[in-house]
Amino acid sequence: METGKQRAAVYEPAEVEQKWYGWWRERGYFRPSGTGESFTVVMPPPNVTGQLHLGHALDNTIQDILIRWRRMQGFNTLWVPGTDHAGIATQAKVEEALAQEGVSRQQLGREAFLERVWEWKNLYGDRITRQLCLLGSSCDWERERFTMDENCSRAVREVFVNLYEEGLIYQGDYIVNWCPRCLTAISDIEVEHEDEDGGLWYLKYPVEDSDEFIVVATTRPETMLGDTGVAVHPEDERYRGLVGKMVVLPLVGRKIPVFADDYVDREFGTGAVKVTPAHDPNDFDMGQRHGLDTISVMNLDGTMNEAAGDAYAGMDRYACREAVVNHLRARGALLEHEVHRHAVGHCQRCNTVVEPMVSRQWFVRMQPLAKPAIETVLSGDTRFVPERFTRIYINWMENIRDWCISRQLWWGHRIPVWYCDSCGEVICSKSDPTACPGCGHEELRQDEDVLDTWFSSALWPFSTLGWPEDTADMQTFYPTSVLVTGRDIIFFWVARMIFSGLHHAHKTPFHTVNIHGLILDGQGRKMSKSLNNGIDPIEVIEKYGADTLRFSLVTGVSPGNDIRFNWEKVENTRNFANKIWNASRFVLMNLDDYEPVNLEFDELTLPDKWIISRFQQCVWDMTLQLDAYDWGEAARSIYDFIWDDFCDWYIELCKQRLTPEQDTAKRRTAQNVLRDTLNGILALLHPFMPFLSEELYQALPGHGESLMIQAWPQADEGLICAAAIEEMNDLMAAVRGLRNIRAEFRIPAGAKLDAVLLIPEAERRRGIIDNQEYIIRLARLESLRIEAELPEKPVQSASVLSARMQIYVPLEGLIDIGKEKERLLKELKSAEAEAAKAEGKLNNEKFTAQAPPEVIAKERAKAEEARQKKEGVLQRLHSLNS
């Protein structure tokens, strides 16, 4: 878009966006400048096999706003992009593809299977990065990283071996969350709990050598086959006489002890609980405290094993549940059953119900790592924005359990531990050993498991900068400045990066964690495949453009809160882009003979002083808002300034001065203020809508090389004229009031009005008198009287009364007063009926007791709207009668 060139009436993003993205990359604008204070952001690495979803779009839009803004402020900015190998997710994708060929990974073997995964990664791995380019992400793609590239893999081994040698990594038999479908252990935070209607079964366990029995309540009766104890609370008088005795396990015949433990909730069920250490984490802990046996009755695929007994071995766990219940009922050992709603853990990846299992796994000892990670946040070295997320982080870190880091997968960082079967030596090494250091035997067997994906992700802020080497990037860009991420991965990722950065790189990995909410659909529901309510951001970009998607995602966002996506907001943003486009077209059309001149602020017109003052206020507000990570308010500030101040008011006030017959000096002044203000607007807009702003900037006379490297505007308090702002507020109030009268009384657009303004305050009145030409033109007036006092109100006149002024427009000759009265009486009757209907519902106790809160709120809004409508009609009738 060039000055003097014919321009389309509607903004076409498809013709603009990729042109400028490629142009920016070619000129190296995404790379650090090498000058100024460093400002670093690392991108939360999306899954290599994933594709862009709205969460990515929001997250990367915020990061791009931040990095573009800081770049314009002169910082030496670096935004490091990259992708995550995503162990479980990627392996599952490849296994699905193999299944369609009728092949399993076991049939292929480990090496051949991994070759297929790398092929998949190379085929699909850059899909999401291409999509991030479509969004406008100004990352330094020359520094793009992958969690399994050479340097990141080296960092993983370095960290594992260091922690192992420090005694912070150990192997042990422990209860873990096991996914029977993915066939791997998963961490606590990879388990999603959903409330479901299940059952609560009350089982009778007979006391040995007695007619007594104890009743236990359980939600998983199939696990009773592995019970090794019954627990009661030590202060529960009901069971005091049974503690220390043995009970006989129904169906199995095994004798198990009754013992007391503080963990037991006396209010749940009967207050006595069956204890299955192999299949419940709390039972496992009680079993450890009381020396109980651990009997696993399930296979890794969720079927029952031989320890469950011949009657159940080989059954699916849920089929076994039904069989056990039937057998207990037949033997009189089932007392009762009731429906019970409770939280059930599901694998985050495949949604299979997770089964707690005891297995041999690798763990990170967390207490020594958690302590400094808590202290760095409490001391303020790392802060959460919004601050309320600090407490959530601290609570989790204070109650953290050891981290299970091994996964029974093939795709991922293989655990760097080897075993010598000749002498039993265990070798943990940063490089692949060729022989056993104990006996010299060369046949070594590497541990089969891989590391949890989050193990490598936890090192992301420093592994991407070249650690463990002390690289120039580490010296310049670490610690990083800000981490932008969703509230859903504070525990998955943020916490682990903090303790990893402190322990290995000896500094907190970032000074600020900016937490944003999740994107919900228009009804406030989480987007999911099952609800079929997901939105493909690429489709939005193709239809509306990346700038429209970006701006619509941050508009109305409050820090840390979830965001409702709705198409109306997208449409409104598209209209906003067109508003900017058309306003700029108008400005550029009038700049063909533009010549820069030095403007003396004191000699400018009121509209010129006002728009310059308002621009300075907008710069001030936006800079503070961006500094506070309040993206929604910053977007609102630039939106309001462009739409209201610049387009709806200033351009309209300028038009007369831009006509060819106008005085050259006046035209030059208007051109310069228009051009300079538009230049500033595009700079403020650039972090949010980079493509549109660059396209328009390049058409401005006197533009620089690129908006990306133009300086962010600095607010100048000396250019904020409070008197001009106040005078313009009066002028706008007068025009709005006159326009409202025209609309309310349906006065034809072509009819000229006679108006009277009553303004008792002398200074305010003088300001209006000096600038009345604008009111006459914008309100389409025939005549305008401005009075200090008015003995009586003009007959049959419409009025607008405010603290600033009173506005009167005589209506005689403009409308048929008799017909207007008839119309208003009908409107009054309709408004009264609407109000009565809404009030009737709100006064109905049954309605207010049973209706959902949102329905009641809607009726209250209707009642208020009808009341205001009625008051407005009565005021207009009063005007016609007086």
Low-pLDDT segments, ≥5 res: none
Strand content: 15-25%
Overall pLDDT confidence: 91
The tally of beta strands, per DSSP, is 29
Folded structure, characterized:
There is one protein chain. It is globular, with a radius of gyration of 36 Å. The strands form ten sheets. The protein has a four-stranded antiparallel β-sheet with strand order 6-5-14-16. The chain has a four-stranded mixed β-sheet with strand order 10-11-9-12. Strands 27-26-29-28 form a four-stranded mixed β-sheet. The protein is of the alpha/beta class and 882 residues long. The protein is built from 28 helices and 29 strands. The protein starts with 16 loop residues before the first helix and ends with a helix. Helix 17 (546-554) crosses helix 18 and helix 19 crosses helix 23 (722-744).
Write a compact overview of the structure shown.
The protein is of the alpha/beta class and 882 residues long. It contains 28 helices and 29 strands.
